[in-house]
């Protein structure tokens, strides 16, 4: 009889042990299945301004390509690439020996014409004296002829001498007029020769920056052949190619946002000029946008112009709801009581919101803010 209580005790202990083990299992299972309380936001579609983007290149508003007006070998070069030059600064000197010879020849022609003027003046004075004498003689002989004191032959001779004297005087005056015209021609020839000589000294037409250099001492400069390019100081602009289908939407004076890749800055600007012709190759027209003054702005820089193009629907979520790992972006959505990872493609962001281009649908619930430890497959419970 004493053995029975001992057996009962063993069974009781065994059952107690089993009950304790089952309780532990239930407790562990319950801990694993307990949902995590989260809050969510819905992916919402809103109206956003539509933007058309065009790329282009920064260029100086005014650039001068300098070339020689006369042919000649380059004797001196007084600038380097990247120099800032002032207006009137001497840049290139050409060999001007033949131009000097032309100037001296023109000077000799002018001096010869001027020296001939003294001879012509003397001839005029002599012709005038001869005319005055003939006029006095004509008057005196006229009285004698009227008194029948001289013959008709003598009177005819007096009249003829007067006509010859008048003709001689007029001829002398005519020669003087011709010589004056010759002097003016010689002066103009000398001025032209000096102008041609001045072309041997090439100066900067305006202040600016030397951006191209195509000349060295000893080179043969020819008219129309570029020697250098000067970008005038005072401003730059972005020139972009815009699709012909948008010709009616872009006008001079329209506001536009410009992003320069080198600076990473977004600038407010306005369209200055719209070229009316369309390039048949690219099917685009050129738009010139004046840029505000800023440091380190150089021609040739790459830039983007963003034009307003109405409005469009955009699916947006809080930017902080996105987890980014390198180039991969993901969010957690609630599906059937579980957190599910979803890869998304993002667009532009603004005001703490980011546009979702793909990966989500309107109305889907995104876990936000994301609690620590919640990942794909975690059981969750949405709470307000």
Brief write-up:
The protein is an alpha+beta fold. It has helices spanning 3-33, 97-146, 152-198; strands spanning 36-38, 40-42, 44-60, 63-67, 72-77, 84-85, 90-94, 201-203, 208-213, 220-221, 226-232, 236-243, 255-260, 265-279, 284-290, 302-318, 323-325, 328-335, 338-343, 345-350, 353-358, 365-367, 380-382.
What would you say this structure looks like, in words?
The protein has 384 residues and is α+β, with helices and mostly antiparallel strands. Among the domains are: 52-60 and 234-310, Efflux pump adaptor protein, beta barrel domain (Elongation Factor Tu (Ef-tu), domain 3, Beta Barrel), CATH 2.40.30.170; 64-95 and 200-230, Beta Barrel (OB fold (Dihydrolipoamide Acetyltransferase, E2P)), CATH 2.40.50; 97-192. The protein is 33% helix and 38% strand. It contains three helices and 23 strands. It has helices at residues 3-33, 97-146, 152-198, and strands at 36-38, 40-42, 44-60, 63-67, 72-77, 84-85, 90-94, 201-203, 208-213, 220-221, 226-232, 236-243, 255-260, 265-279, 284-290, 302-318, 323-325, 328-335, 338-343, 345-350, 353-358, 365-367, 380-382. A six-stranded antiparallel β-barrel has the order 3-12-15-14-13-16. Helix 2 runs antiparallel to helix 3. The model is unreliable at 1-31 (pLDDT under 50).
């Amino acid at each position: 009889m004493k053995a029975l209580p001992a057996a009962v005790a063993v069974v009781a202990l065994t059952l107690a042990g089993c009950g304790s083990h089952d309780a532990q299992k239930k407790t562990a299972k319950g801990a694993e299945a307990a949902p995590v309380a989260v809050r969510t936001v819905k992916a919402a579609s809103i109206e956003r301004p539509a933007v058309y983007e065009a790329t282009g290149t920064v260029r100086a508003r005014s650039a001068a390509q300098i070339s020689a007006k006369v042919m000649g070998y380059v004797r001196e070069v007084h600038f380097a690439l990247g120099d800032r030059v002032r207006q009137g600064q001497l840049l290139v000197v050409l060999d001007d020996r033949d131009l000097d010879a032309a100037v001296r020849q023109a000077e000799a022609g002018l001096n010869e014409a001027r020296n001939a003027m003294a001879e012509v003046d003397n001839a005029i004075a002599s012709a005038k004296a001869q005319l005055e004498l003939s006029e006095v003689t004509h008057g005196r002989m006229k009285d004698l002829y009227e008194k029948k004191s001289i013959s008709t032959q003598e009177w005819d001779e007096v009249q003829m001498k007067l006509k010859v004297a008048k003709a001689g005087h007029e001829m002398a005056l005519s020669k003087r007029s011709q010589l004056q015209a010759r002097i003016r021609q010689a002066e103009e020839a000398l001025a032209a020769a000096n102008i041609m000589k001045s072309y041997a000294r090439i100066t900067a037409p305006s202040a600016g920056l030397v951006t191209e250099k195509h000349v060295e001492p000893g080179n043969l400069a020819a008219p129309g052949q570029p020697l250098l390019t000067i970008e005038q100081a005072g401003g730059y602009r972005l020139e972009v190619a815009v699709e012909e289908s948008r010709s009616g939407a872009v006008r001079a004076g329209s506001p536009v946002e410009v992003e320069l890749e080198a600076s990473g800055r977004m600038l407010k600007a306005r369209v200055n000029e719209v070229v009316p012709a369309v390039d048949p190759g690219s099917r685009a027209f050129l738009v010139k946008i004046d840029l505000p003054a800023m440091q380190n702005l150089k021609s040739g820089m790459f830039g983007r112009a963003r034009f307003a193009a109405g409005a469009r629907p955009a699916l947006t979520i809080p930017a902080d709801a996105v987890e980014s790992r390198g180039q991969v972006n993901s969010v957690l959505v609630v599906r059937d009581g579980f957190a599910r990872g979803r890869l998304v493609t993002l667009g532009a962001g603004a005001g703490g919101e980011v546009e979702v281009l793909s990966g989500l649908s309107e109305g889907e619930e995104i876990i936000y803010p994301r609690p620590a430890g919640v990942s794909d497959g975690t059981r969750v419970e949405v709470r307000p």
